[in-house]
Design goal:
Strand content: 5-15%
Shape: globular
Largest sheet: 5 strands, parallel
Order of helices and strands: EHEHHEHHEHHEH
Structural class: alpha/beta
Strand order of the largest sheet: 2-3-1-4-5
Bound molecules: ligand Z5A
CATH architecture: 3-Layer(aba) Sandwich
Helix content: 40-55%
CATH superfamily: P-loop containing nucleotide triphosphate hydrolases
Number of helices: 8
Number of domains: 1
Length: 210
């Protein structure tokens, strides 16, 4: 068995719908288990009791809210999650593996809802600056064409409030991830999400274990 990976890391997974984040996180966590690495697996929106309540509202197809309200609720959930789960875990020397984080807000609220409007993007930048004291050390952007992710995700049953959006929305979300990757190539790593789950997991491990 390999040695534990000692230095605590904050890792976020990002990508459009159905790219395989959950599957990739399952496989990463199996490897962290094998190396004896102490970690917390979490997700956004959600991850703490209060934020999970907000997640229910945010994903509920019966919820009808304005774009700014959605943005603020994402940050309300994030603020609680950071304070109660992410920061304490990192301070205790644990890794944090998080399914979605700030880049999803830029992609979904900034590009998907806001169509890349500079005012919306600047609101998000400002919220990050004020309410996110710790950025991920590594962000893994699972890059897969939107249609291919939808095909993978389509095997599931009921669509939530985001999954009900049309393809054009998800193309803008993709553009949001792509532009953030180009703007922040040190933190954000592009992972080719084609191929088998094991092949994708191997690409991720090469990045994470460096
Ligand atoms: N949201 C937001 O708007 N703003 C924010 O700030 C945040 C989030 C944080 C919930 O996210 C929604 O919240 C999300 C954005 C919004 N809405 N959308 N869309 P979520 O992460 O809970 O939901 P999701 O993005 O829809 O995730 P997902 O659809 O569950 O997909 P996934 O986790 O990336 O994929 P998966 O479940 O691992 O895989 C999908 C299927 O493909 C499954 O059957 C797998 O067995 C299969 N799969 C996985 N990997 C492979 C490979 N390599 N080959 C073939 N098949 C595969």
């Amino acid at each position: 068995m390999s040695h534990p990976v000692n230095q605590a890391k904050f890792i976020s997974f990002e990508g459009t719908e159905g790219v395989g984040k959950t599957t990739a996180i399952d496989l990463l966590c199996q490897r962290l288990d094998k190396t004896g690495t102490d970690y917390v697996r979490t997700r956004e929106p959600g991850g703490s009791d209060f934020a999970e309540k907000l997640r229910e509202l945010l994903l509920d197809t019966a919820t009808n809210i304005f774009d700014d309200t959605e943005l603020l609720l994402m940050f309300a959930a994030r603020s609680d999650h950071l304070a109660k789960v992410v920061l304490p875990a990192l301070e205790a020397g644990k890794w944090v593996v998080c399914d979605r984080f700030i880049d999803s807000t830029v992609a979904y609220q900034g590009y998907g809802r806001g169509m890349g409007d500079p005012i919306m993007l600047s609101k998000i930048d400002s919220l990050i600056a004020h309410f996110v004291p710790r950025l991920p050390d590594i962000t893994l952007w699972l890059d897969l064409p939107v249609q291919e992710g939808m095909r993978r995700a389509g095997k599931r049953s009921v669509a939530d409030r985001f999954e009900q959006q049309k393809t054009a929305f998800f193309e803008r979300v993709y553009q949001g991830f792509s532009e953030q990757y180009q703007a922040q190539p040190t933190r954000i790593h592009r992972v080719d999400a084609h191929g088998t789950a094991e092949e994708v997991a191997e690409r991720i491990w090469v990045i994470v274990s460096q």
